[in-house]
């Protein structure tokens, strides 16, 4: 196999791809329009770590090729507690626990056989308090509302890097380079209101929002679009997260919301998984990157265009986001 193909395999492996996912993407030197076999990919990976002295294949005299059930259980315990280690690190930890040196290929095969594979990890904030999340969901249950009565308010930000695309077309075995000025550009903060019909409205400032800005947005954008909770109207319960500017004038915000007959809730800290607008912002940012043609248009137009068209079916997608966050 040529050296460049080996580099490609190692680069993809470091990004979290499994050998089975990498193999079809590496052209076979013997078969046209076919990929290499998984064994070849595993061999390149093993050689790379051996050469880097990160995972030498170590064998003990009289060592059995097959890992025992007890040692397999110890390995699974280690991987469960620390899923982000390299194979050679698992070799060292397992040796420390059972005094037998297994090689990296044995560790790899055993993990695969047990149903484990390399995946992109999600990071959960340690500050998240499950008790506070439970309290929030009790408040939602006590209100006894339909999904369309809930609307969400949150902030996101964009700058020039938000339009930068990560991948581009190029010839095989060659790099794809784009000349550009590497700078952040001017940062824009966007506060948006989101409901079961999609994005309802937005506000933006250059730089960041403070408490006074949030108070202004609530008065002129949020409150006029809220319905009556007692009458069961849509968008009659507004939900915010716990960032500082949202809490700065908390009492004033609640007074404004309740003044029009609506209700206000605050999410538990560090709980974006309970906030459908977080999913909507992810789609919005991807569409912002796609629609570079309107980069020179007025900022108000660009934001409105991306919020309006980032979903092909806004209402259906919004309902799916609500359900995925646990609202039924």
Describe this structure in words.
The chain has 328 residues and is an alpha/beta fold. Helix content is 44%, strand content 10%. The longest helix has 15 residues, at 276-290. The radius of gyration is 26 Å and the shape is globular.
SSE map:
Blueprint (H helix, E strand, L loop, with lengths): L2 H12 L4 H4 L15 H14 L17 H13 L5 H12 L5 H10 L16 H14 L6 E9 L29 E8 L2 E9 L4 H12 L14 E4 L3 H5 L1 H10 L3 E4 L9 H15 L8 H11 L4 H11 L4
Parallel strand pairs: 1-4, 4-5
Antiparallel strand pairs: 1-2, 2-3
Short characterization:
About 4% of the residues have low confidence. Helix content is 44%, strand content 10%. By secondary structure, the protein is α/β, with parallel strands linked by helices.
The termini sit apart by 54 Å
| Uncertain residue ranges | 53-64
Q: Which structural category do the helix and sheet elements fall into?
A: alpha/beta
In the CATH hierarchy, what is the architecture of the largest domain at level 2?
Answer: 2-Layer Sandwich
Instruction: Tell me the fraction of residues in β-strands, as a range.
Output: 5-15%
Please state the CA-atom Rg, rounded to the nearest Å.
26 Å
CATH topology of the largest domain: Nucleotidyltransferase, domain 5
Instruction: Give the SSE order as H and E letters.
Output: HHHHHHHEEEHEHHEHHH
Q: Can you count the beta strands?
A: 5
Number of helices: 13
CATH superfamily of the largest domain: Ribonuclease H-like superfamily/Ribonuclease H
């Amino acid at each position: 196999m040529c050296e460049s193909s080996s580099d490609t395999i190692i680069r993809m492996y470091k990004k979290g791809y499994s050998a089975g996912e990498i193999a079809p993407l590496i052209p076979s030197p013997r078969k046209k329009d076919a990929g290499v076999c998984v064994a070849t990919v595993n061999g390149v990976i093993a050689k790379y770590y051996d050469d880097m002295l990160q995972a030498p294949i170590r064998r003990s005299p009289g060592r059995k090729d097959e890992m025992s059930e007890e040692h397999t259980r110890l390995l699974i315990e280690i991987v469960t507690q620390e899923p982000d280690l390299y194979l050679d690190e698992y070799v060292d930890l397992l040796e420390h626990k059972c005094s037998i040196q297994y090689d990296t290929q044995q560790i790899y095969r055993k993990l695969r056989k047990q149903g484990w594979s390399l995946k992109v990890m999600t990071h959960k904030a340690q500050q998240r308090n499950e008790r506070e999340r439970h309290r929030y969901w009790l408040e939602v249950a006590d209100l006894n509302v339909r999904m369309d009565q809930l609307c969400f308010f949150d902030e996101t930000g964009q700058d020039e890097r938000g339009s930068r695309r990560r991948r581009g077309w190029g010839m095989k075995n060659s790099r794809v380079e784009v000349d550009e000025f590497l700078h952040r550009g001017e940062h824009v903060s966007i506060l948006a209101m989101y409901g079961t019909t999609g994005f309802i409205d937005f506000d933006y400032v250059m730089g960041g929002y403070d408490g006074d800005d949030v108070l202004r947005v609530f008065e002129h954008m949020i409150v006029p679009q809220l319905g009556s909770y007692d009458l069961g109207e849509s968008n009659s319960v507004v939900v915010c997260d716990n960032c500082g500017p949202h809490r700065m004038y908390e009492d004033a915000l609640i007074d404004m919301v309740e003044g029009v007959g609506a209700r206000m809730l605050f999410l538990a800290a560090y709980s974006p998984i309970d906030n459908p607008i977080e999913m909507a912002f992810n789609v919005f940012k991807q569409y912002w990157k796609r629609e570079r043609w309107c980069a020179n248009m007025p900022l108000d137009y660009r934001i409105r265009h991306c919020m309006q068209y980032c979903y092909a079916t806004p209402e259906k997608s919004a309902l799916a986001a609500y359900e995925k966050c646990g609202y039924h």
